[in-house]
Design a protein that fits this description.
Blueprint lengths: L8 E9 L8 H11 L3 E4 L3 E3 L9 E10 L3 H14 L14 E7 L4 E3 L2 E3 L8 H10 L12 H9 L6 H4 L2
Antiparallel strand pairs: 1-4, 1-5, 2-4, 3-4, 6-7
Helix pairs in contact: 3-4
Length: about 170
């Protein structure tokens, strides 16, 4: 099926930044990125989160729902073009970045190609993705587990009780 007649799909896109861009601080960068994304139908509040990996800077994270006639690979290419326009350059994995845009879910279910896997392979373990996503798509079901975003966030990121027997020195 060509791009021109591909059916409209919904995408859940995660956004992150922990470096200033020509738009300003990371929060301002995400706000500008949301405006640059075509077809946004819902947007979560931007939240501040601790860094993951070697980066020492806090992140601004958010999520949007996008409606588009693009295939997942074409959507990925569009997201990479926006990242580049905002000044993102290839660099260290999990390092500081001006803008990170990831396809988390799409309404077509599962997509597997060498360069792209949807659902995003690590989204279930990332509260900084799930918390904003829950604001705009709490009932969207993961096509792999069958759980909603809200269920996944609660199940994977709820505080665990301390085992007092093991905690003693």
């Amino acid at each position: 099926m060509s791009e021109a007649n591909y059916p409209t799909a919904n995408y859940l896109i995660a956004l992150g930044s922990n470096r200033a861009s020509h738009h300003g601080n990371p929060r301002a960068t995400l706000a500008a990125a949301i405006k640059a994304l075509p077809g946004v139908v819902a947007s979560a509040r931007i939240i501040a989160t601790p860094p993951m990996g070697p980066s020492r800077r806090r992140f601004a994270n958010g999520a949007v729902l996008v409606e588009s006639g693009l295939t997942p690979p074409a959507m990925l290419a569009a997201l990479k073009a926006i990242e580049a326009a905002f000044g993102r350059r290839p660099g260290r994995r999990w390092g500081a970045r001006v803008l990170d845009l990831d396809i988390i879910l799409w309404s077509g279910g599962v997509w597997r190609q060498r360069s792209l896997t949807v659902p995003h392979v690590a989204f279930r373990q990332r509260a900084f993705v799930l918390a904003p996503a829950r604001q705009i798509a709490p009932r969207w079901r993961d096509p792999v587990t069958g759980r909603t975003i809200a269920q996944t966030l609660v199940q994977n990121h709820r505080p665990r009780p301390v085992d007092r027997k093991r905690a003693r020195p």
